[in-house]
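We examine the record.

___
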Amino acid sequence: MKTLFVAVLSALLLSGCAERYFNGPGAEALIYPETHIYQFTVKSTQQTEEKLNMIFDTVDEIDSGASYLVEYRSNKGKKVVYKSLKDKTALRLRADEFVVRQNNSLSNDIQLTITYHALVTHQCAPSEIEEVNVSRNCFSEVARMKQVSHKERIVEEGL
């Protein structure tokens, strides 16, 4: 009798856990590299500096560990680049790669190539019994990726 009671109790406990779905909120995340190339012809040094500073600040907000390649063709472009980078000493230290070099084959005065990692998240609907789950690979743990300071560290090195 005692063994029958233990067998029935364990069967009831196990059957209740077998078909349990997670009904909490979840999110899908996609981390991908983006490369942008900006080309400038220096007409007004102040206006070009403002545009460069705006680009540097915008990218730094998205990804503090971006890769920068700044190329200039002439001394005019070199002065503008170094003047805009004068206040951004921390940007050079935080970046994965930061290169400033002369390139005489450019068609414009300055070319800025930036590669950063962007994070896209999507809220997931909770799973339902006997319903097709449209959102695959949806985990609640992924929502914490929004708080990761260096998103590029999550991406596989093959990308």
Remarks:
- The domain at 25-159 is CATH 3.40.1260 (Hypothetical Protein Ychn; Chain: A,).
- The mean pLDDT is 78.
- The chain has one domain: 25-159.
